[in-house]
Give the backbone structure.
Amino acid sequence: MHGVSRKQSRYPSRPEVTAMPARHNREQPLNCAVCNREGSPVKPAEVTQKISDQLSSMRKSERKVAEYILANPDEVIHMRIVDLATEAQVSEPTVVRFCRAVGCSGFQEFKLNLAQQLASSPSFGQIAVTETDTIAEYKRKVFDSTVDTLLNVRDTIDNRALEAAVAAIASAKRVEFFGFGASGAVASDAQHKFFRLQVATAAHSDHHMQNMSAMSMEPGDVVVAISQSGRTKALLHSMEMVKQQGGTVIGLAPSRSPVAQQATIPLEVDVEEDIEIYTPLSSRIAHLVVIDTLAIGVAQRKGPQLQDHLLKLKQGLYTLRQEK
């Protein structure tokens, strides 16, 4: 896509936008008057396609905005105008001009319609949910797809790499989890699990926080870098900084991806999902299960003393629960 690689989002997950059946959405005009050749409002699913079609006729600066949006639609819908301008390396007025060039009154209106497109897609991941599927049918497809993914990852992930990762975490003075967007949520979940294991841990999904944390790493410290695409530039930059300080980087990412290649210990997780269009579903769950596996391994290494600590935590939680 014009040399622009998709970045894993550093922003929150997609907002709640009512996703109606596609046949209904086609009857509703967008607030944003992106028009086709006949002058009619473009259907939600055609917003990004229309931008792509117009790339060659855009000004150079506006094209940079368009290319970034096409490469990172899930990220853009959560951005402020200053964020998009910074990422696309243009001025804020250029972003406004781009929005008006495609028929929107401004950036907020453009984001709304981009979100409508993303929410109204009748397919999710690689499971081919159709408009006519009943709840029983798409429930089965979602569950079957996830189970299939987990079994595949279970059988293909390198046991020696898992063992090396467990050993590194168990002996580390400090363990931090880095990720953006959906991977940032996985990082937060990992931090929540490992702090119970008496591991000094933190999770960062902000690039600046990652950089500052990376610069304070020391030999023996560990960073677990999580990426569903394995190509997030900001994450790769943070990983390099950690290694320069002598830290160990465990990379949870697809095989042969830049993140896996740059990691000290690559944990390769390959999931067949179209992350260029859809928010990853099964890969996120696969990453969570790998994190669970690492946590079990670390707990096993720490032995009986950890069991006493976990029992103390469990007893403390009972005081926070309402009696039946």
Remarks:
- Residues 1-45 have pLDDT under 50 and may be disordered.
